[in-house]
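FAQ

Q: What does a record look like?
A: Structure on top, sequence underneath. For example:
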């Protein structure tokens, strides 16, 4: 199985490096462009000048960055298929060492780029029709999922999700040797994705001085969906720097609000410590409102968040700006107040037993 044609209308092939020595096969299949996804010196191959060549020097390891190459390789493949020789369409071979992981990843990325109806799973299934051994490593599969989630942008480098992903890699590398990252990425100082506001929007305020600390876009909804009966709950660490999981009805069981790093945390985070206190940024307040831990923190719900930037629920108020919670809470209400509680609706906290008894 040296050379496999990807099903479809295009002359797109995937294979291993030994395919390059089958000159007759390459000529019969009309290969005009070659994408090599490995570190190798190709000077020993005969007639190498006959082909347009793109070399992506990466190893087949999970932490290798292939995501940043998807647009360059996708554009090369697209142009190679359209423009062959003598005015004819071309044929493109994508290969790595075995034609199993790296080359298949590049092929899938091209399919996602060109055919928006494809998912990562469906594109992999298509390749496997011709090459059953196709199996990108887990790291490459995660990068493909992120690429699809990003919308397969033409400018990958500028995309906020890619920038956040790169920073997460920096953090992971630093934590692996027990160090704090060289830089802190404050999310409120970065370009954010343009998304339509929808659903429940909240604002977290210091309970002591009412200073706004965070809003919905910077909250980490860290709980997984409730486990099915007879199944094991999710306990793997999640990253507070990566995209968040869908919200869960169990969120009220947690004693923490987890955030992305925000600029008001700068005095604490730039001390270079692995963990420490978070204080209210109001210079007249400075109340302790939470903690941070680059190495991660376990929430009361049992989920590890890493790195962790946490506000204690007992130290902040959750103000609902839009939408309703499970208790029918209305717009601009304090968390826990009903829609009919007018005093709660304007953010006034009443002592226990005083709700619903009118003005003080």
């Amino acid at each position: 199985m040296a050379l496999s044609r990807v099903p479809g209308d295009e002359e797109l092939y995937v294979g291993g490096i030994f395919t390059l020595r089958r000159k007759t096969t390459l000529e019969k299949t009309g290969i005009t462009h070659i994408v090599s996804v490995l570190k190798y010196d190709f000077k020993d191959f005969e007639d190498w000048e006959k082909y347009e060549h793109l070399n992506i020097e990466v190893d087949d390891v999970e932490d290798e960055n292939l995501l940043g190459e998807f647009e360059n390789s996708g554009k090369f493949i697209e142009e190679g298929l359209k423009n062959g020789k003598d005015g004819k369409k071309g044929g493109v071979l994508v290969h790595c060492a075995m034609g199993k992981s790296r080359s298949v990843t590049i092929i899938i990325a091209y399919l996602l780029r060109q055919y928006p109806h494809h998912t990562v799973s469906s594109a992999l299934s298509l390749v496997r029709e011709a090459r059953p051994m196709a199996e990108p490593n887990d790291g490459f599969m995660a990068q493909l999922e992120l690429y699809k989630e990003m919308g397969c942008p033409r400018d990958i480098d500028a995309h906020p999700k890619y920038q956040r992903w790169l920073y997460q890699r920096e953090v992971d590398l630093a934590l692996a040797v027990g160090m704090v990252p060289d830089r802190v990425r404050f999310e409120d100082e970065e370009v954010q994705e343009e998304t339509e506001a929808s659903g429940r929007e909240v604002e977290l305020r210091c309970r002591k001085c009412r200073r706004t600390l965070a809003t919905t876009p910077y909250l980490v909804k860290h709980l997984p969906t409730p486990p099915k009966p007879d199944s094991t709950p999710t306990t793997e660490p999640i990253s507070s720097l990566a995209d968040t999981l869908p919200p869960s009805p169990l969120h009220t069981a947690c004693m923490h609000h987890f955030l992305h790093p925000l600029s008001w945390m700068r005095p604490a985070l730039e001390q270079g410590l692995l963990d420490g206190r978070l204080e209210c940024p109001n210079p007249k307040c400075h109340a302790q409102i939470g903690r941070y831990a680059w190495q991660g923190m376990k929430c009361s719900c049992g989920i590890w968040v890493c790195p962790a930037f946490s506000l204690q629920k007992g130290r902040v108020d959750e103000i609902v700006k839009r939408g309703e919670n499970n208790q029918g809470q209305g717009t601009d209400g304090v968390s826990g107040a009903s829609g009919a509680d007018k005093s709660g609706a304007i953010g006034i906290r009443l002592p226990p037993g005083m709700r619903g008894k009118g003005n003080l």
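Q: Is there anything notable about this one?
A: Residues 60 and 102 are 6 Å apart (CA to CA).
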